[in-house]
Amino acid sequence: MDVSDRSEMPTHLYLAPAAAGKTAYVLARARAVSRGLAAVPRVVVPTHLQARAARRRLAETGGAIGVRVLTFDRLYAEVLDTVGEIYVELSDPVQYRLIRAVVDSLPLTHYAALAARPGFILVLQRLIGELKAARVHPDDFARAVRALGDEPRLAELAQIYAAYQTRLQAQDWADRAGLGWLAVEALEQRAPDVGRDWPLLVVDGFDSFTPIQTALLKALAGQVGQLVVTLTGEPNGGPSTLAHRRFARTRATLEAALGTRAEPLPPTLTPDSRPLSPTLAHLERSLFRADGAPVDANGAVALIEAPERGGEVRAALRWLKQRIMFDGCRPGEVALLARDVASYRPFIEQTAAEFGLPICLVDGLPLRENPAVAALLGLLQMALSNSTGKLSLARRAVVEAWRSPYFEWSTLAEDGASPGIEPGDADDLDAVARWGRVIGGQAQWSEALERLAELASEPSEDEDRGVPAGLPRGEAARALRAKFEHFVARVTPPDGTRAYHDFVGWLETLIGADDPTSPGRFAVAEDPTSLQVVAQARRGDAAVAECDVAALAGLKDVLRGLVWAEEALGIPRVDFTRFVTELTGALEAASYRLPVHADREEILVADVVQARGLSLRAVAVLG
Length: 623
Description:
- There is one protein chain.
- The chain is α/β, with parallel strands linked by helices.
- It contains 22 helices and 14 strands.
- Strand 6 (201-203), helix 9 (211-221) and strand 7 form a beta-alpha-beta unit.
- Helix 4 (92-105) packs across helix 22.
- It is globular.
């Protein structure tokens, strides 16, 4: 069939029930029209999970060469690359820093009390993403706000949104949500030939589309050889319409945008789809209906009650392990889902480790909560200035830093002359602080250590009754005081206001390079003041070390993003307190993922929405 003959290849919107073979059909169709590099069909799916599953299915049915599987984000980038428009896409930490710079430059009144808080910037980050996904222009947003009477809370949000977008355009930058907007504008205004050499564009596995995504499909519909969109549902309504009301709304939107009518899915070209069990098919038909007659679950559905989240997770993972052990399921064929996995994540990690189950958290792990990163942030918080302008040196923070397995304190002085912190020194320092009622501040620490240093090494029977036995005295106290002073010098940051790269350079030197057997992303000049954090992390349990090193790499990326944003935005010099505040906020917005092991299957752990469109043999749903 000649791809240039548009009349023979119209846009199709196919509807079929769940597990009716929609993905099998479109993948087979994509393979059928592929002609190597000369004609490459595109298959667009909601997330990288579906993309990975689609590539695996293509490989199992004869190979994925000649078929591109991608998400909308990658499709946006491909359109922009084709038209020759180059934009710098901002990472989440850099976007956070940009929003912070915008907020700092505006004379806010309603949000003045929140402006300096990291959580406020995170909320703005999500709000801007939603506005852009809905293709709401800053001017339109401002007009809508004025129509409501110029409420201060909304007016300042409109002001922030407009200033943020102006800053992006002035620098030729784009955030993730804005790439779609730019791609649609390029197609509508000056790129009528994009997609002419695409024999097929398939969109599979979605239950809804943002206005940007709908506009992109509309723009491409008249340019690609074929456009095929699949949705779950019945072409003529049917008993499952109530359960599929989201799909029904999406169907109506697409029919209006694409100028087509939904039709039944043609017979699948390959037999690799698995039909729903009768019990699950009945559940789909009767969901949210009061008139459905109950049927025997026949083991296809099991309900388990638990008193709290930890119990839920334990019961669900035990059930999944039974499916793996007794039903022959592979870990990659089962999943643990929840409406919001974040609230269950600590229980899932702990219980999976206890049960020996490999898991894959789709959203990654919060960078701020990793123990290695948290230890470094604790060290930075301890080095903040107190009301007297000196290091705060809070008692608990100091003792935890001395005890931390992530810091190498064996050599405190640069010349190596001073002995480092040894096992037991942290306990001695803690005992001194409790005896001397040390709360924080170098003066309190020095006073307590000095009083003990002035005592004789061996107390007589009638002296020093106020000093408990076991506290370091005399020479031992003087040695402990020397170690403490070297420790303070080691963690004292650059003083005054500095450029971000000064503080980042100091922190990267403190973190240190990787060990020589595993060079990579931590290639900084080794320094005698380094705490060798990466090398220390690698000395722990293999699984924990893998997690910590991945998090430290993520921290490095955030630090480099802060330096990049400073140079690009011309951010004024800051003091150390402001640097730590901004770094903490950027880390709150960042996550990290563990390395993917090609030879190891893992149980998928994701939000329910993220797993839509996947073919799985067993699923446990929390909550």
